[in-house]
Amino acid sequence: MASLQESLNKFQKQQERCQTTLSSIAAKAGSKATTAPRATPASTLSKSPAPAVKFSNDTERLQHINSIRKAPVGAQIKRVIDLLLETRQAFTPEQINEACYVDANANKAVFDSLRKNPKVYYDGKRFAYKSKHDLRDKSELLVLIRKFPEGIAVIDLKDAYPTVMDDLQTLKATGQIWLLSNFDSQEDIAYPNDPRVPIKVDNYLKTLFRDVELPRDMIDIEKDLQKNGMKPATNTAKRRAQAQVHGIGPKQKPKKKKHEISKRTKLTNSHLPELFQNLKSS
Asked: How many beta carbons lie within 10 A of that of residue 175, not counting itself?
């Protein structure tokens, strides 16, 4: 029991000596740090990695903007007009640049062309789309059409406001206007259908009109129109003469091939034998 106590005392003394040694080492290290900072070796400085160069993640967008601003003036003007037409809002040059990347302030040719364009209205600060007819809704559209009893081209109304084409179809469906095609230009023309002048045609007159037999040859029809003081829209005689000069004969309609019934034909109406009395043997 005495030997065990002696061993324990020795171990405690060793622990105390180790603790004293560690405390003295820590004290010396702290004093050196306060008096003179430790110098960093030159080799360590040279080996330190340089900061990485960060490239823009927006490279494609910047290239797209650059291609727009280097495009011809006409292409840039179209881009701006499309923006004004779609949004129907007024934009400053700075807002146009943000929306479609056309920098009118930096390009005098673009700015001047935009300001003078007949489809653009400029109030000194902002650009807006300018349609041929300043309309806002269906009622104003109908009032305008009624001012043109000889008709107004639909192409002149297309850009009045976003839903103008739908309103034209609605006015047509309700019988307030007529939409007819121009024979020469194949463009639709809007005509007013004045409700103050309702026209009712007697059934007897309709029958007389439908019973009129027209000539079979187009040349005869054109002659009859001329006799009545009307100008035909076609000139069949001239067209046929030109075709003969160029050796182009009249187009003949291909004859339809008769489908005759034979024994090999699949009969689906076998319950009607009278239909197959002339069945060919083949």
From this structure: 9
Provide φ and ψ at 20, rounded to 5°.
-65, -40
pLDDT of amino acid 113? 94
CB atoms within 10 A of CB 141: 24
User: CB of 151 within 8 A of CB of 159?
Assistant: no
The answer on 155 and 120 residing in a single domain is no
Domain range for 122 is 61-129
Does residue 79 lie within any of the structural domains? Answer: yes
CATH number at residue 102: 1.10.10
- Asked whether the whole model's pTM tops 0.85, one would answer no
Residues of the chain with pLDDT under 50: 32-37, 39-40, 42-45, 53-54, 281-282
**CA–CA dist 39, 62 (Å, integer):** 46
Same domain membership, residue 104 and residue 75: yes
State both tokens at 185: 């230009």
How many structural domains does the chain have? 3
CB 127 within 8 A of CB 95: no
